[in-house]
Design brief:
By secondary structure, this protein is of the alpha/beta class. It has helices at about 30-45, 55-60, 60-70, 85-100, 110-125, 135-145, 195-205, 210, 260-270, 285, 290-295, 300-305, 320-325, 325-335, 350-355, 370-385, 400-420, 440-445, 445-455, 460-475, 480-490, 495-515; strands at about 5-10, 50-55, 75-80, 105-110, 130, 160, 170, 215-220, 225, 235, 235-240, 255, 275-280, 315, 340-345, 390-395, 425-430, 515-520. It has a 7-stranded mixed beta sheet with strand order 2-1-3-4-5-6-7, with helices on both faces. Strands 8-13-14-15-16-17-18 form a 7-stranded parallel beta sheet, with helices on both faces. A two-stranded antiparallel sheet has the order 9-12. The longest helix is centred in the C-terminal third of the chain and has 17 residues, at about 400-420. The protein starts with 6 loop residues before the first strand and ends with a strand.
Length: about 525
């Protein structure tokens, strides 16, 4: 029987130590947690259970810890969204929960858990369950646990649990659930403490164009996956993915809703007071083109009736070859759907860097072109259409040399000096080999790193990598700065961390010289 004391807490902890990218910033809510909350609330109806959202990036981890201390006695479950950067803080909070209320369930999800769920379940007794790439299974599981009758594990798609022998077991996710996900109630972010207005204040303080245009931005999910997730996988990691990508997709590499549902998702955000949509789906003009083309051809009445000045706009990710090889797509995205800001992975900039990071075109038209040519054509396409670009820049990669770093920075400087007003932000840093990525595999399998570097005439420090591989094969909690330093030492023996910091400073100076946002939280 559910009581008035039941509380299910959803936590986005702040980073354990200094985070080297802008992936966990305070200008957007954690959409995954809000989606889980919306789905669970629909399962519970009006039964007295309280759902609470806390973001340590906004309110500090100390605030979350104080809340846990004050309310531990009626916590039914605490659900953590864990990336590599905030995993340590999340585990510390989970242990805090269990010390004060051993009966409370601790449930983990998101990329770090998806990559390392087996060792996490083995090493962390405070973690009871997890979920991979799923919402409905989670909502059913927690609702049943509140009612005191959890069914057999296979009932809950995506569930990670301990089998009778103590090993981690995983129920496959059900990709069909994506079409049935609930519309997100963004007000759930304010269920315990104010969050949404603080996110909006962060947007206004970071982006000048959001201030000038009085934009209220919100994150939306109208598709998942990437064209580079197709093909063979090794231990769940797509071999065709870019080296630094730590996303482990579900059984379907690409999935999206029907056109009407996609428009309903956008209308839902618009009706809740938002007019600038951050579309989280990867590589929109390539991966999601059929969906977007259908949306452009079937605009709903509420959208068509709005005066042009009041129509919401969108921004999202794009692979550069989409701009270069199919420019008509970009015109439709900009002129019909209102996308005016694209995140493009410029990354290393030189052709050799893009090839080493596996950033070359995924196939089709343009696959024989030089990779950097697509970046330059994409830039020109944005300039011609008056659009904005946030450029993703990866300053290190497998086997990089001082000469390659110098060439990359020189090209970046030339591009930014020529088109400074096109860049909304520069989001840059050295590779952090997070679990789930090919770059993490270089740390766990030195022979693989050596082979891949040799394919490009580059080298690694095999002896150092051998000395560290057991640590990366067995640990579940990593300090990101230590990971970066180990990657540079073992996978980039021709450069030093001092040189990496020189280029970090030089890139920061370049952005500051033109008033370009650094990172920007996207």
């Amino acid at each position: 029987m559910i009581t008035q004391q039941d509380l299910v807490l959803f936590v986005n902890a702040n980073d354990t130590s200094r985070h080297t990218t802008s992936a966990n910033t305070s200008i957007y809510p954690n959409l995954g947690l809000l989606t889980l909350m919306s789905a669970l609330r629909d399962k519970l109806d009006a039964d007295g259970t309280q759902l609470g959202y806390l973001d340590g990036v906004v309110h500090s981890n100390e605030t979350i810890e104080e809340f846990i201390d004050a309310h531990a006695h009626h916590l039914h479950a605490v659900c953590f969204s864990v990336l590599t950067a905030n995993y340590g803080a999340s585990i510390a909070m989970a242990q805090r929960v269990k010390r004060q209320n051993p009966n409370a369930l601790v449930i983990l999800g998101n990329d770090h858990f998806s990559a390392l769920y087996e060792r996490i379940m083995q090493r962390q007794p405070s973690v009871d369950f997890g979920f991979n790439d799923v919402v409905t299974g989670f909502a059913d599981f927690v609702a049943d646990s509140l009612r005191g009758h959890i069914k057999t594990p296979e009932t809950y798609p995506g569930l990670v649990y301990r089998a009778t022998d103590g090993t981690a077991a995983k129920v496959p996710e059900d990709a069909r659930e994506y079409a049935t996900l609930p519309l997100v109630d963004y007000s759930l972010a304010d269920s315990l403490l104010p969050h949404q207005e603080l996110y909006l204040q962060g947007q206004q303080s970071v982006y000048f164009f959001m201030r000038e245009r009085e934009l209220r931005s919100q994150v939306v999910d109208i598709g998942r996956g990437c064209v580079k997730f197709a093909g063979r996988r090794l231990e769940g990691v797509p071999l065709n993915a870019c080296d630094f990508c730590g996303i482990i997709p579900g059984s379907k590499e690409i999935i999206w809703p029907e056109v009407d549902k996609a428009w309903a998702i956008l209308e839902n955000a618009y009706r809740q007071g938002y007019n600038y949509f951050y579309v989280t789906a990867d590589e929109l003009p390539l991966t999601m083109w059929r969906l977007l083309r259908g949306m452009a051809a079937n605009q709903p009445e509420w959208f068509r009736r709005l005066p042009q000045s009041q129509k919401p706009s969108m921004f999202g990710y794009a692979r550069a070859e989409a701009f270069a090889t199919v420019p008509d797509r970009i015109d439709e995205l900009v002129n019909v759907l209102g996308l005016d800001h694209f995140f493009i992975g410029f990354d290393g900039l030189s052709d050799i860097s893009l090839r080493v990071m596996n950033k070359q075109p995924a196939g089709g038209r343009g696959r024989r072109d030089l990779p950097m040519a697509h970046n330059l054509e994409a830039l020109a396409g944005a300039v011609d259409r008056g659009g904005m670009i946030t450029a993703g820049l990866v300053l290190t990669h497998l086997g990089i040399t001082p000469q390659i770093m110098a060439e990359n920075h020189a090209m970046l400087t030339e591009i930014v000096d020529k088109h400074p007003k096109t860049f909304a932000a520069l989001d840059f840093g050295p590779v952090c080999p997070i679990p789930g990525s090919q770059s993490f595999r270089y740390l766990t399998h030195p022979e693989y790193a050596e082979q891949r570097a040799a394919e490009h005439g580059l080298r690694v420090d095999r002896e150092f990598l051998e000395s560290r591989k057991d640590f990366y094969r067995s640990s579940d909690d990593f300090d990101m700065d230590e990971m970066i330093a180990d990657f540079v030492r073992g996978c980039c023996p021709d450069v030093t961390m001092d040189l990496v910091h020189e280029y970090l400073t030089a890139t920061e100076d370049l952005a500051n010289r033109h008033g370009i946002v650094i990172g920007g939280g996207v």
